[in-house]
Request: fold
Amino acid sequence: MQIGMIGLGRMGMNMARRLLQGGHEVVVYNRSQDKVRQMVAEGAAGSGSLKDFIEKLAAPRIVWLMLPAGSIVDNHLAELSDLLAAGDMVIDGGNSFYKDDAPRAEMLQQKTIHFLDAGVSGGIWGLESGYCIMVGGDEAGFKRIEPLLQTLTQPEGYVYCGPTGAGHFVKMVHNGIEYAMMEAYGEGFNIMKQSAFGQGLEFDKIAHVWNRGSVVKSWLLELLETAFARDPQLADLEPVVQDSGEGRWTVQQALDTGTPAPVIAQAVFQRFESQGQGAFSHRVLAALRREFGGHSVVRKE
Reply:
């Protein structure tokens, strides 16, 4: 099956590779031509512009976007809408906000271009292990791309979620849960580190044994075992955790529907705190304790 892939970042490039390995014909485009040349060396057809990219695809075309969420997606869709033809299809496989999907689908539908939203999970390990993909949009379109999904995913690793936006919505909640799971692991290992036993505990071995039959076993814990084996105290890392948006979108969805989500919300706020946004609030608390109770404070040198 032929497919065009736009965006050759860590996810997009490996997805293109997996499709090539599965026997599909892959045409690639990326703003950085170095990555295009790299994929050409691995068997893909390269293109130097979006116009060149479209011309190398046979109608009806399938174009898969793996781009950062936001205006870059809109810019590409606007340009593609002038290049594609009726019956062609665009799949947004990035972590776009699900409420952006309906206007994009409507814009393309005016030219009879189909649109699917696909939430993709699997990270840098997807090439080797297969991805997990959640798809929203027209069900006939979903069935049309099933050969691609079967190649990209683990067995039973893809699902049709419903109308436009449903795929990105389910992926958004997936990432919110991921925030909370990671926060729980972080807090648990920190409790152990700060205890009287902390200096003697080997965290890679603890993560390993927890993945052998315990109720907290997970792929995240397997990755943590690898990280601890490489650096037992994670000393080479700064304690700063970025957030890419899906966690806060999940919390906003909970607020919009009045749905309790205290654990996910706290996990998001902890990420903000790690980026220095909690530093002043901690100073306020210390100052208040000093003022009302005469408690000692630690002054900056």
In short: The radius of gyration is 23 Å.
